[in-house]
């Protein structure tokens, strides 16, 4: 029930906006017209790439299922292990707090402390759907610059966390 | 912008074609998945565009340039990092905001710092994070990422 209401709330926003916009045009209310011209620009910007982005993401999802990668995480160590957690993180979607339960799974599977935090770092900044949106809105250069600087930094953060936590009885709790 | 759209259209068409040749059933499944994801975010996305259009009308560019522009220096960076750390804005919403900020005169440094803290530092979700990792680890991770975000912002600003 609550979910249904939530959904309708979204449509109410949209409906109110369009009623107000039509009214603005009828009455000749300039701020309303200007907001609408902003909206049109944003709408065109979005429609020209977001649907295509989701085609790419959907295909990725089918060809590279994250369950398959998850199977191997934890068993592999060294560079390969690090590579795997980063790939696994890239295949995810959603906010950072959605990564904590996965961090628990990684911990359970025997992933190193370093790799758990590298996973969190990659999850927060290298998810493929997000990279797509970022390229669309901020450009390839911005995305490249940001990811190339981020990658070594969160790998370093992983090493730092491992170094600090090694003898401190680190564990990830299940909620 | 047009160039970006062209990249996405070409990549998606090529990928779909290759995928279709390799496995027709999988391709249809993938397209359906993508369509579903798009459907899920379409309405919230439109709502955000409305909100951004409104804010853009109300907030004058001069204000954005003053507080987040190239001349804003330390305080611009501080504002971006703090707002990014405290707020909890989903990625697909923050990118249109970021793009508007840049078009209105915000610097790449402040925007990259804002985006990175948004993604990597979570003050609101800290209690939850503490439950998973314990107090020390959660705080340490957030502090490290906060510092990293500022470094990332400064570097991106230098490169672009």
Describe the structure.
Chain A has nine helices and no strands. With 175 residues, chain A is mostly helical. Chain A folds into two domains: 2-48; 63-165, no CATH class. In chain A, helix 3 (50-63) packs antiparallel against helix 8 (128-138), helix 6 packs antiparallel against helix 7 and helix 7 (113-125) packs antiparallel against helix 9. The two termini of chain A are 26 Å apart. The model of chain A has no long low-confidence stretch (mean pLDDT 89). With 160 residues, chain B is mainly α. Chain B folds into two domains: 1-43; 59-159, no CATH class. Chain B contains eight helices and no strands. Chain B has helices at 2-22, 24-58, 61-68, 73-86, 91-103, 108-120, 126-133, 135-159. The longest helix of chain B is centred in the N-terminal third of the chain and has 35 residues, at 24-58. The radius of gyration of chain B is 19 Å and the shape is globular. The model of chain B has no long low-confidence stretch (mean pLDDT 90). The interface between A and B is large, with 72 and 72 residues.
Q: How much helix, percentage-wise, in residues of chain B?
A: over 70%
Share in β-strands of chain B = under 5%
What class would the helix/strand composition of chain A place it in?
mainly alpha
What is the global morphology of chain B? globular
What is the averaged pLDDT score of chain A? 89
- Tertiary shape of chain A: elongated
Q: How many domains in all of chain B?
A: 2
Total DSSP E strands of chain B? 0
Q: Tell me about the largest β-sheet of chain A.
A: none
| Helix/strand/pairing category of chain B | mainly alpha
């Amino acid at each position: 029930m609550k979910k249904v209401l939530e959904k309708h709330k979204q449509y109410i926003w949209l409906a109110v906006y369009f009623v107000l916009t039509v009214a603005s045009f009828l009455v000749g209310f300039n701020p309303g017209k200007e907001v609408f011209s902003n909206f049109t620009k944003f709408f065109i910007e979005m429609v020209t790439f977001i649907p295509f982005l989701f085609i790419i993401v959907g295909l990725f999802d089918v060809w590279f299922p994250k369950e398959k990668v998850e199977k191997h995480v934890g068993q592999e160590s060294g560079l390969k292990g690090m590579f795997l957690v980063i790939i696994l993180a890239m295949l995810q979607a959603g906010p950072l707090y959605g990564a904590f339960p996965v961090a628990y799974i990684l911990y359970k599977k025997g992933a190193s402390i370093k790799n758990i935090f590298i996973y969190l770092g990659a999850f927060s900044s290298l998810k493929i759907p997000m990279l797509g949106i970022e390229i669309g809105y901020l450009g390839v250069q911005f995305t490249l610059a940001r990811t190339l600087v981020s990658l070594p930094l969160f790998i370093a953060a992983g090493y730092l966390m491992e170094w600090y936590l090694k003898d401190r009885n680190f564990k990830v709790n299940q909620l | 912008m047009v160039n970006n759209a062209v990249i996405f259209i070409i990549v998606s068409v090529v990928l779909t074609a290759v995928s279709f040749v390799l496995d027709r059933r999988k391709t249809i499944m993938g397209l359906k998945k993508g369509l579903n994801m798009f459907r899920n975010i379409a309405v919230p996305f439109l709502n955000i565009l409305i909100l951004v259009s409104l804010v853009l009308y109300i907030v004058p560019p001069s204000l954005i340039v003053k507080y987040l522009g190239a001349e804003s220096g330390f305080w611009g960076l501080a504002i971006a990092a703090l707002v990014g750390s405290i707020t909890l804005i989903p990625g697909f919403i923050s990118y249109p905001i970021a793009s508007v900020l840049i078009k209105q005169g915000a610097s790449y440094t402040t925007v990259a710092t804002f985006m990175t803290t948004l993604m990597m530092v979570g003050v609101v979700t800290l209690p939850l994070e503490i439950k998973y990792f314990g107090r020390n680890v959660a705080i340490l991770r957030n502090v490290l990422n906060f510092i990293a975000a500022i470094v990332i912002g400064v570097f991106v600003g230098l490169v672009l």
